[in-house]
Design goal:
There is one protein chain. Helices cover 35% and strands 28% of the residues. The chain is an alpha/beta fold and 246 residues long.
Length: 246
């Protein structure tokens, strides 16, 4: 997703308010041995300072990030950060703060963080590199163009459908251009299973996978009928993981 598209989605993220999708009863099966949180834990120490870009409501950060000296979670949406601060209060975790920040106008100290994590958000690798300490690490997990491709193909559109270059390749090239070392790009494949058609429909109405597309009932019924296994509806997800070092 380009920075311009991210700005266009501002009202969407403000309205959503958080990324806690437990209500959909999704069961996820990973087909790729690449785990962002395991990599993060392996790189961090008790003295680490971690910056989390695109933190949303902070749910993933609070549940999966290691205890360390300092964690700063940022998001473009004030409503998301409001949710994150409330989630932080309930969690009781320490050394964590949240603030509103545009990833393309980063307001953080230079040469300060040991690890920067960007999850499902746009980035400016040049600015990220400036805020990392020498030898610091960048971890990116993003949604690729071919995410839910069977669904998008059936409807003839959706998030990234007409992008000339997959965002994974664009991110990879931009990180290289910014001067990072040891840049590794890994495709991530997962299967998500929804408990019933109702939760699947609600999910598609909540997330931007089929943005700008009319959710025609006949198309939706066809997809559900062709992708129901053991009473659950399958959605094939395509993400990407990227690691790099300053």
């Amino acid at each position: 997703m380009s920075h311009e598209k991210a700005i266009d989605h501002f009202e969407y993220y403000q309205k959503l308010g958080n990324w806690d999708f437990d209500r959909f009863g999704i069961h996820t099966r990973s087909l790729t041995d690449w785990d962002l949180y395991e990599i993060l834990k392996s790189l961090s120490t008790p003295d680490s300072r971690i910056l989390d870009l695109g933190t949303g409501g902070g749910e993933k950060l609070l549940a999966n990030y290691p205890d360390c000296k300092e964690i700063l979670g940022t998001d473009y949406s004030p409503e998301m950060i409001k949710t994150a601060r409330e989630n932080l209060r309930r969690s009781g975790r320490k050394n964590i703060t949240f603030k509103v920040m545009d990833n393309h106008k980063m307001d953080v100290p230079e040469d300060y963080f040991d690890i920067v994590v960007a999850r499902h958000t746009t980035t400016d690798p040049v600015q990220i590199r400036k805020c990392l300490k020498p030898g610091g690490h960048l971890l990116i997990r993003g949604v690729d163009k071919y995410d839910c491709w069977g669904l998008k193909f059936l409807f003839g559109g959706g998030q990234g459908f007409n992008d000339p270059v997959p965002v994974s390749i664009a991110d990879y090239e931009n990180v290289l251009k910014a001067g990072f070392k040891d840049v590794v790009l890994v495709p991530i494949h997962e299967q998500e299973f929804f408990k019933d058609p109702g939760s699947f429909r609600e999910f598609l109405q909540t997330v931007p996978i089929l943005e700008g597309v009319d959710l025609k009932e006949d198309h939706l019924q066809r997809y559900i009928s062709e992708n129901t296994f053991g009473g659950k509806i399958r959605l094939i997800r395509s993400y990407y993981g990227l690691t790099a070092r300053k």
